[in-house]
Write a structure and sequence with these properties.
Blueprint (H helix, E strand, L loop, with lengths): L2 H16 L6 E5 L10 E7 L17 E5 L7 E5 L10 H4 L1 H8 L4 E10 L9 E9 L27 H14 L3 E8 L8 H9 L4 E3 L3 H9 L3 E11 L10 H25 L1
Parallel strand pairs: 1-4, 1-5, 5-9, 6-7, 7-8
Antiparallel strand pairs: 2-3, 3-4, 5-8, 6-9
Helix pairs in contact: 1-3, 4-7
The chain binds hypoxanthine.
Hypoxanthine (HPA) binds next to strand 5, strand 8 and strand 9.
Length: about 270
Protein backbone atom coordinates (compact mmCIF):
# COMPACT_ATOMS: atom_id res chain seq x y z
CA UNK A 1 0.00 0.00 0.00
CA UNK A 2 1.52 3.36 -0.92
CA UNK A 3 1.64 6.38 1.33
CA UNK A 4 -1.34 8.17 -0.21
CA UNK A 5 -3.49 5.09 0.33
CA UNK A 6 -2.33 4.76 3.95
CA UNK A 7 -3.00 8.45 4.64
CA UNK A 8 -6.50 8.12 3.23
CA UNK A 9 -7.22 4.97 5.17
CA UNK A 10 -6.18 6.75 8.36
CA UNK A 11 -8.33 9.74 7.49
CA UNK A 12 -11.32 7.42 6.98
CA UNK A 13 -10.70 5.84 10.40
CA UNK A 14 -10.30 9.27 11.98
CA UNK A 15 -13.57 10.33 10.36
CA UNK A 16 -15.41 7.45 11.98
CA UNK A 17 -13.83 8.25 15.35
CA UNK A 18 -14.98 11.85 15.00
CA UNK A 19 -18.54 10.56 14.62
CA UNK A 20 -19.58 12.80 11.75
CA UNK A 21 -22.13 11.37 9.29
CA UNK A 22 -20.90 10.05 5.96
CA UNK A 23 -21.18 12.81 3.36
CA UNK A 24 -23.44 12.53 0.33
CA UNK A 25 -21.74 15.55 -1.16
CA UNK A 26 -18.59 17.60 -0.90
CA UNK A 27 -18.58 21.36 -1.43
CA UNK A 28 -15.27 23.24 -1.69
CA UNK A 29 -15.31 27.01 -1.89
CA UNK A 30 -12.72 29.27 -3.47
CA UNK A 31 -11.20 32.71 -2.95
CA UNK A 32 -13.51 34.98 -1.02
CA UNK A 33 -16.43 32.62 -1.71
CA UNK A 34 -16.46 30.83 1.63
CA UNK A 35 -20.09 31.78 2.26
CA UNK A 36 -22.25 30.45 5.11
CA UNK A 37 -24.23 27.42 3.95
CA UNK A 38 -27.08 26.01 5.96
CA UNK A 39 -27.80 24.34 8.23
CA UNK A 40 -24.46 23.48 9.81
CA UNK A 41 -24.59 20.36 12.01
CA UNK A 42 -20.95 19.65 12.95
CA UNK A 43 -17.80 21.74 13.21
CA UNK A 44 -16.27 23.99 12.20
CA UNK A 45 -12.88 22.40 12.63
CA UNK A 46 -9.67 23.65 11.02
CA UNK A 47 -8.95 22.11 7.61
CA UNK A 48 -5.62 21.02 9.06
CA UNK A 49 -7.49 18.47 11.19
CA UNK A 50 -8.78 16.73 8.07
CA UNK A 51 -5.51 16.70 6.15
CA UNK A 52 -2.42 14.61 6.97
CA UNK A 53 0.02 17.39 6.06
CA UNK A 54 0.64 20.97 7.23
CA UNK A 55 -1.82 23.55 5.90
CA UNK A 56 -0.57 27.04 5.13
CA UNK A 57 -3.04 29.88 4.82
CA UNK A 58 -3.23 32.38 1.97
CA UNK A 59 -4.62 35.88 2.54
CA UNK A 60 -8.37 35.76 1.92
CA UNK A 61 -8.58 31.99 1.99
CA UNK A 62 -10.08 30.93 5.32
CA UNK A 63 -9.63 27.24 5.96
CA UNK A 64 -12.26 25.43 7.95
CA UNK A 65 -14.47 22.41 7.59
CA UNK A 66 -18.02 21.71 8.67
CA UNK A 67 -20.93 19.40 8.01
CA UNK A 68 -24.26 20.64 6.69
CA UNK A 69 -27.66 18.99 6.48
CA UNK A 70 -29.42 20.92 3.72
CA UNK A 71 -31.59 17.90 2.82
CA UNK A 72 -32.69 15.32 5.44
CA UNK A 73 -30.90 12.42 3.70
CA UNK A 74 -27.96 14.25 2.24
CA UNK A 75 -25.22 15.39 4.62
CA UNK A 76 -22.68 17.64 2.96
CA UNK A 77 -19.03 18.08 3.87
CA UNK A 78 -18.17 21.73 3.35
CA UNK A 79 -14.61 22.99 2.99
CA UNK A 80 -14.27 26.74 3.30
CA UNK A 81 -11.09 27.14 1.34
CA UNK A 82 -8.73 24.73 -0.35
CA UNK A 83 -5.05 24.07 -0.84
CA UNK A 84 -3.56 24.84 -4.26
CA UNK A 85 -0.73 23.36 -6.29
CA UNK A 86 0.83 26.84 -6.55
CA UNK A 87 1.37 26.82 -2.79
CA UNK A 88 3.67 23.85 -3.31
CA UNK A 89 1.22 21.07 -2.53
CA UNK A 90 1.48 18.06 -4.77
CA UNK A 91 -1.58 16.89 -6.71
CA UNK A 92 -2.33 14.06 -4.26
CA UNK A 93 -2.49 16.60 -1.46
CA UNK A 94 -4.68 18.98 -3.47
CA UNK A 95 -7.24 16.24 -4.14
CA UNK A 96 -7.05 14.60 -0.69
CA UNK A 97 -10.46 15.89 0.50
CA UNK A 98 -12.09 14.71 -2.75
CA UNK A 99 -10.71 11.20 -2.33
CA UNK A 100 -11.63 11.14 1.34
CA UNK A 101 -15.22 12.13 0.55
CA UNK A 102 -15.41 9.55 -2.24
CA UNK A 103 -14.10 6.79 0.02
CA UNK A 104 -16.74 7.79 2.58
CA UNK A 105 -19.41 7.27 -0.08
CA UNK A 106 -19.97 10.78 -1.46
CA UNK A 107 -21.69 11.01 -4.84
CA UNK A 108 -21.42 14.69 -5.68
CA UNK A 109 -18.66 17.30 -5.75
CA UNK A 110 -19.53 20.98 -6.15
CA UNK A 111 -16.82 23.62 -6.13
CA UNK A 112 -16.54 27.35 -6.59
CA UNK A 113 -13.52 29.24 -7.82
CA UNK A 114 -12.38 32.68 -8.88
CA UNK A 115 -11.52 33.04 -12.56
CA UNK A 116 -10.37 35.55 -15.11
CA UNK A 117 -12.82 36.17 -17.98
CA UNK A 118 -11.49 35.69 -21.51
CA UNK A 119 -14.53 37.07 -23.27
CA UNK A 120 -14.25 40.87 -23.61
CA UNK A 121 -18.04 40.97 -23.05
CA UNK A 122 -17.74 39.32 -19.66
CA UNK A 123 -17.50 41.47 -16.57
CA UNK A 124 -16.28 41.13 -12.99
CA UNK A 125 -18.96 39.79 -10.67
CA UNK A 126 -20.49 37.44 -13.28
CA UNK A 127 -21.04 33.79 -12.39
CA UNK A 128 -20.33 31.09 -14.92
CA UNK A 129 -20.97 27.35 -14.72
CA UNK A 130 -18.03 25.34 -16.00
CA UNK A 131 -19.04 23.12 -18.95
CA UNK A 132 -15.64 21.56 -19.54
CA UNK A 133 -11.99 22.22 -18.80
CA UNK A 134 -8.54 22.43 -20.32
CA UNK A 135 -6.03 21.01 -17.86
CA UNK A 136 -2.97 23.10 -18.67
CA UNK A 137 -1.41 22.78 -15.22
CA UNK A 138 1.05 20.09 -16.32
CA UNK A 139 -0.17 18.10 -13.30
CA UNK A 140 -2.41 15.08 -12.92
CA UNK A 141 -3.41 13.46 -9.62
CA UNK A 142 -3.65 10.05 -11.31
CA UNK A 143 0.04 9.86 -12.16
CA UNK A 144 1.67 6.81 -10.65
CA UNK A 145 -0.38 3.80 -9.64
CA UNK A 146 -3.55 4.81 -7.84
CA UNK A 147 -5.25 1.72 -6.34
CA UNK A 148 -7.44 -0.06 -8.90
CA UNK A 149 -10.42 0.12 -6.47
CA UNK A 150 -10.41 3.89 -6.75
CA UNK A 151 -11.27 3.86 -10.43
CA UNK A 152 -10.15 3.07 -13.96
CA UNK A 153 -6.56 3.53 -15.12
CA UNK A 154 -7.70 5.77 -17.98
CA UNK A 155 -10.89 7.45 -16.79
CA UNK A 156 -13.30 8.87 -19.33
CA UNK A 157 -13.63 12.64 -19.05
CA UNK A 158 -16.40 13.14 -21.62
CA UNK A 159 -18.94 14.19 -19.04
CA UNK A 160 -16.53 15.41 -16.36
CA UNK A 161 -18.95 18.23 -15.54
CA UNK A 162 -22.14 16.30 -14.95
CA UNK A 163 -24.88 17.33 -17.41
CA UNK A 164 -27.80 16.55 -15.06
CA UNK A 165 -26.18 18.42 -12.18
CA UNK A 166 -25.50 21.38 -14.46
CA UNK A 167 -29.14 21.44 -15.54
CA UNK A 168 -30.18 21.44 -11.90
CA UNK A 169 -27.87 24.36 -11.12
CA UNK A 170 -29.11 26.34 -14.14
CA UNK A 171 -32.71 25.71 -13.10
CA UNK A 172 -32.01 26.85 -9.54
CA UNK A 173 -30.23 29.99 -10.79
CA UNK A 174 -33.11 30.83 -13.06
CA UNK A 175 -35.67 30.35 -10.26
CA UNK A 176 -33.62 32.66 -8.04
CA UNK A 177 -33.18 35.25 -10.79
CA UNK A 178 -29.39 34.82 -10.72
CA UNK A 179 -27.61 35.32 -14.02
CA UNK A 180 -25.40 32.30 -14.70
CA UNK A 181 -23.22 31.99 -17.79
CA UNK A 182 -21.44 28.90 -19.03
CA UNK A 183 -17.91 28.28 -20.21
CA UNK A 184 -14.76 26.23 -20.60
CA UNK A 185 -12.27 26.70 -17.75
CA UNK A 186 -8.55 26.62 -18.43
CA UNK A 187 -6.72 25.45 -15.30
CA UNK A 188 -3.14 26.68 -15.07
CA UNK A 189 -0.55 26.06 -12.37
CA UNK A 190 -0.02 29.73 -11.40
CA UNK A 191 0.74 31.59 -9.25
CA UNK A 192 1.75 34.29 -11.71
CA UNK A 193 -1.20 35.54 -13.71
CA UNK A 194 -1.07 34.93 -17.46
CA UNK A 195 0.66 37.13 -19.97
CA UNK A 196 -1.49 38.76 -22.68
CA UNK A 197 0.07 36.32 -25.18
CA UNK A 198 -0.97 33.36 -23.04
CA UNK A 199 -4.48 34.79 -22.81
CA UNK A 200 -4.67 35.11 -26.60
CA UNK A 201 -3.59 31.47 -26.86
CA UNK A 202 -6.26 30.41 -24.37
CA UNK A 203 -8.92 32.30 -26.36
CA UNK A 204 -7.82 30.53 -29.56
CA UNK A 205 -7.88 27.07 -28.00
CA UNK A 206 -11.39 27.47 -26.69
CA UNK A 207 -11.23 28.69 -23.09
CA UNK A 208 -13.73 31.18 -21.65
CA UNK A 209 -12.36 31.27 -18.10
CA UNK A 210 -8.91 30.96 -16.61
CA UNK A 211 -7.86 30.07 -13.10
CA UNK A 212 -5.49 28.13 -10.89
CA UNK A 213 -7.67 25.53 -9.22
CA UNK A 214 -10.36 22.82 -9.45
CA UNK A 215 -9.18 20.83 -12.50
CA UNK A 216 -7.16 18.37 -10.40
CA UNK A 217 -10.09 17.87 -8.03
CA UNK A 218 -12.48 17.22 -10.92
CA UNK A 219 -10.07 14.66 -12.42
CA UNK A 220 -9.75 12.86 -9.08
CA UNK A 221 -13.49 13.15 -8.46
CA UNK A 222 -14.45 11.72 -11.87
CA UNK A 223 -11.91 8.96 -11.43
CA UNK A 224 -13.79 7.86 -8.30
CA UNK A 225 -17.23 8.29 -9.86
CA UNK A 226 -18.29 11.61 -8.34
CA UNK A 227 -20.69 13.81 -10.28
CA UNK A 228 -18.89 17.15 -10.51
CA UNK A 229 -19.90 20.77 -10.98
CA UNK A 230 -17.88 23.98 -10.72
CA UNK A 231 -19.20 27.52 -10.48
CA UNK A 232 -16.69 30.20 -11.46
CA UNK A 233 -16.92 33.78 -10.35
CA UNK A 234 -15.32 36.11 -12.88
CA UNK A 235 -13.34 38.45 -10.67
CA UNK A 236 -11.49 40.25 -13.45
CA UNK A 237 -11.02 40.30 -17.18
CA UNK A 238 -7.90 38.27 -18.01
CA UNK A 239 -4.58 39.96 -18.80
CA UNK A 240 -4.63 42.00 -21.97
CA UNK A 241 -8.43 41.69 -22.37
CA UNK A 242 -8.43 45.07 -20.64
CA UNK A 243 -5.61 47.52 -19.93
CA UNK A 244 -6.03 47.07 -16.18
CA UNK A 245 -3.22 45.23 -14.36
CA UNK A 246 -4.36 42.24 -12.29
CA UNK A 247 -4.59 42.59 -8.59
CA UNK A 248 -5.33 39.94 -5.95
CA UNK A 249 -7.28 42.54 -3.92
CA UNK A 250 -9.65 42.97 -6.86
CA UNK A 251 -10.15 39.21 -7.03
CA UNK A 252 -11.14 39.22 -3.35
CA UNK A 253 -13.35 42.28 -3.70
CA UNK A 254 -15.52 40.76 -6.42
CA UNK A 255 -15.60 37.52 -4.46
CA UNK A 256 -17.29 39.33 -1.59
CA UNK A 257 -19.70 41.18 -3.88
CA UNK A 258 -21.00 38.02 -5.57
CA UNK A 259 -20.94 35.93 -2.43
CA UNK A 260 -24.65 36.36 -1.71
CA UNK A 261 -25.64 34.98 -5.11
CA UNK A 262 -23.29 32.04 -4.68
CA UNK A 263 -24.71 31.45 -1.21
CA UNK A 264 -28.35 31.48 -2.38
CA UNK A 265 -27.57 29.28 -5.34
CA UNK A 266 -25.64 26.64 -3.39
CA UNK A 267 -28.18 26.57 -0.55
CA UNK A 268 -30.98 25.93 -3.03
CA UNK A 269 -29.13 23.30 -5.06
CA UNK A 270 -28.09 21.41 -1.92
CA UNK A 271 -31.54 21.62 -0.34
CA UNK A 272 -33.06 20.08 -3.45
CA UNK A 273 -30.56 17.23 -3.17
N1 LIG B 1 -5.98 34.29 -14.05
C1 LIG B 1 -5.77 33.18 -13.31
N2 LIG B 1 -6.41 32.93 -12.18
C2 LIG B 1 -7.32 33.83 -11.77
C3 LIG B 1 -7.59 35.00 -12.48
C4 LIG B 1 -6.88 35.24 -13.70
O1 LIG B 1 -7.06 36.25 -14.38
N3 LIG B 1 -8.55 35.68 -11.80
C5 LIG B 1 -8.85 34.92 -10.70
N4 LIG B 1 -8.11 33.81 -10.68
Amino acid sequence: MDQREKDLQQAVEQWHRRGWPKPWGLVISGSGLAVDLTPPTHGPIPLAELLPFPVRSVVGHPHSVEMLLPHPERPVLYLRGRVHAYQGYDPDQVVFPVRLAALLGAKVLIMTNAAGGLDPQSHPGQLSLVRDHLNLSGLNPLRGEPPAEWGPRFPDMTAAYDPALRRKIFAAASQLGIELGEGVYAGLAGPSYETPAEIRMLQVIGADLVGMSTVLEVIAGRHMGLRCAVISLITNLAAGVTDEPLDHEEVLHFGRAAATDVQRLLNKVLAEG
